[in-house]
Each structure stands twice: as structure tokens, then as C-alpha cells.
From TrEMBL:
Sample GO molecular function, one term: nucleic acid binding
UniProt xrefs under InterPro entries: Ribonucl_H, RNaseH-like_sf, RNaseH_sf
Species annotation: Alicyclobacillus tolerans
Key words of the record: Exonuclease, Hydrolase, Nuclease
Name by which UniProt lists this protein: Exodeoxyribonuclease X
BP terms from Gene Ontology: DNA replication proofreading
SMART domains: EXOIII (SM00479)
Transmembrane stretches, start-end: none
Keyword Hydrolase: yes
Amino acid sequence: MRIQDTRFVVLDTETTGLDPTIHRIVDISLVEVSKNGIRPLYQTLVNPQQTIPPEASEVHHITNRQVKDKPTWKEVWPTILTHIQDAVRVAHNAKFDRSFLPETHRPWICS
């Protein structure tokens, strides 16, 4: 595959904490980068079904009140998967974001 034919999806998550075994995503954003240009794909707040610790809210400014009526991860994952399934994923500190997403056996690039 030629790089100019590659579709990249840049993604960013915000979470309730640093440990993916106990913490959850509270926000995810996706932007496509391809030979056709750059375009926003998807962004949503996510109800983590657990309390967002004050220390996490201090970093990303997302509160429990903001996510209480938002969809859960189980509800948003199918939509996210449709956007990323055929793309190379790009993230700043990709190891962190990747640890919060189900494995899909696609390549990742860390910015």
C-alpha cells in the first residue's frame, strides 16, 4: 500500500484516570486525514458509568454532570469502529489511547 493511498484517523481520548483496567473513556474525538484532505469524523462525550475523579476533571474539564445522560462506551463503540476499522490510527501518546480501546489488529502511529 502506498502512503498517499493510506487513510489515517487521528484520535484522542479523555478518561477517568490512567489505568485502563479500572478507568473509562469520557470523551473521544476522531479526525480523518487522507489524500482527500482533513475532516472531522466523530466526537462524543461518553458516560463512563463510574464517577470521574476530581483530579481527572481538573485535567480535561469534563464533569460527572456533563456525562450523566450521554451514551455509554458499549453504545458508541460500533460507530467508532465504522470510522477506524480500515484506517491507520494516529494518537499523541498512542500507547495510552490504544490501551483504552478494544484491540482491532490495525496499525497505530504515535505522534
